[in-house]
Amino acid sequence: MDLHVFDYSEPGNFSDISWPCNSSDCIVVDTLQCSGLPNKSVLLYTLAFVYIFIFVIGMIANSVVVWVNIQAKTTGYDTHCYILNLAIADLWVVVTIPVWVVSLVQHNQWPMGELTCKVTHLIFSINLFGSIFFLTCMSVDRYLSVAYFAHTSSRKKQAVRRAVCVLVWLLAFCVSLPDTYYLKTVTSASNNETYCRSFYPEHSVKEWLISMELVSVVLGFAIPFSVIAVFYCLLARAVSSSSDPEKHSSRKIIFSYVVVFLVCWLPYHVVVLLDIFSILHYLPFSCQLENFLFTALHVTQCLSLVHCCVNPVLYSFIHRSYRYELMKAFIFKYSAKTGLTKLIDASRASETEYSALEQTTK
User: Fold this and answer.
1) What is the pLDDT of residue 78?
2) Which of 13, 170, 256, 333 is deepest in the core (most CB within 10 A)?
3) Which residues pair with 197 in a beta bridge?
4) What are the counts of helices (DSSP H) followed by strands (DSSP E) for the chain?
5) Phi then psi dihedrals of residue 113, to 5 deg
6) What proportion of the chain, given as a percentage, has pLDDT over 70?
7) Which three-class secondary structure state does DSSP give residue 141?
8) pLDDT category, 323, cuts 50, 70, 90?
9) Taking the domains of the chain in order of start, what are their residue ranges?
10) Inter-residue contact 128 to 169 (CB < 8 Å)
11) What is its subcellular localisation (predicted)?
12) Residue 102: CB atoms within 10 Å
């Protein structure tokens, strides 16, 4: 996404800042002085605690997924490549959270320098877009694997998936680069407060700001959600035609993929659209509106990052084959220290049987 939420501030806070913009197209914030948001500190500190919780859970869950996928020779299900890259992307997203928390508890000030501002934003944006794109690719892959390529060789499908993963990372980088390029740190002349902001070309500030927000909505939600919803609905219909009762129960899991994505991301992008309408003056300016957008953007962004904690559960921990690989990885890792040699032998003996069972339930 972008830094829009993490640096969103109330109007009137920057009337004494020397903005690097002399054009009449600049967005002026000092024409109306609004009083501070009531209980603003309470809001920001509460969100900081929630972010720390997301950081801890996200680090643990995604680290486990990455470790197990690296340790395991096979995961037992087709989308291993996407799940590994999804966990890596989510892991890097949560790694940046402590930096945002430092800024958040200082009322969105940025005391860490311009380089840190750019690097943190780039890491955050690339991996957040990457996470969403990998979820989208997974939905397409799962349907095509069932409906059209069920008998295609695993080697060919793996080669295609690896190529798609490379393209996803390149796309996420390209989408994230423009906004990162225009990031700068600006310091208030009166109170020496420093902020990390995007300063777009003077002749088209408003156009750039609206374009970046639209990119966030279209590429970060509208297109991915449409693809995810359509292909998982197709997958659910394909699964329902099977006489296997195990596959019928998987429709609930498929439904949860769509619902969780919608719940986590729809509120944030609705608020971003409201902010676009405010910039375009489709919504009349008022301090109440600005205070609402300030609060709503912070809260909904926090909700959206919960997705980094939910992804490991929905796409990894819920699968029996993953839990089997997790158990096996721990057994092989710690057997020498804990004396679990017999369990190792048992897991080896049952591996062929388990693989056969998984094939019958796909």
Assistant:
1) 59
2) 13
3) 184
4) 12, 2
5) 90, 160
6) 72
7) helix
8) low
9) 40-318
10) no
11) Cell membrane
12) 15
